[in-house]
Amino acid sequence: MKHKFSLTFASLLIIISSSFAIIRPAKAQANIVVVSTTIQAAVDAANPGDTVRVPPGIYRENVLVAEDNITIKGQSGAILDGTGLPGNSGITVRSSSPSARINGFKLTGLQIQNYSRNGVILIRVDNYQIDDGKLQLELSWRLAPM
Questions:
Q1: How many CB atoms are closer than 10 A to CB 109?
Q2: Is 57 contained in some domain?
């Protein structure tokens, strides 16, 4: 009888210890969010690590990225155009919290044009990459007597 009790107790310990096994959450897989209406709507739908793919076309908007590790990838012919818009920047990357920083942002392949000040502005952003795009600015200036 004593022998049966130890075997049952040992089985119970194995069952209990296996239920406390370390379970590691699966790493979230990055998704591709394709722009279907506006770049901003796609950015809003993206989660950290996702890529926003911008198909060819002209997008007249100002875009705010407030999440970590978002990639915006423009296909050939994708243009972000600020003609007639009230904002002065095409893409602004900053946290919604004044004291926080954004970690990770990548912009590639998008043509940005006709914004009064900035094609892209990064505020408190670490680990960023901007490449393979085109920024068109029309500069005007004047000399003022001193």
A1: 17
A2: yes
**85: burial class by Cβ within 10 Å (0-12, 13-18, 19+)?**
middle
24 belongs to a structural domain? no
**Residue ranges making up the domain that contains 119:** 29-136
Nearest to 90 by CA among 37, 39, 129: 39
Residue linked to tokens 């060819």: 56
Residue length of the chain: 146
CB 107 within 8 A of CB 132: no
Total domains in the chain come to 1
- pLDDT tens for 81-125 read 999 999 889 999 999 998 999 999 999 999 999 999 989 999 999
Could you give the angle at the alpha carbon of 72 between the alpha carbons of 71 and 78, nearest 5°? 160
Q: What is the DSSP letter of 117?
A: S
Burial tier of 69 (Cβ tally within 10 Å: 0-12, 13-18, 19+): middle
Please tell me the distance from the alpha carbon of residue 144 to that of residue 68, in angstroms, as a whole number: 43
Average pLDDT of the residues of the chain = 81
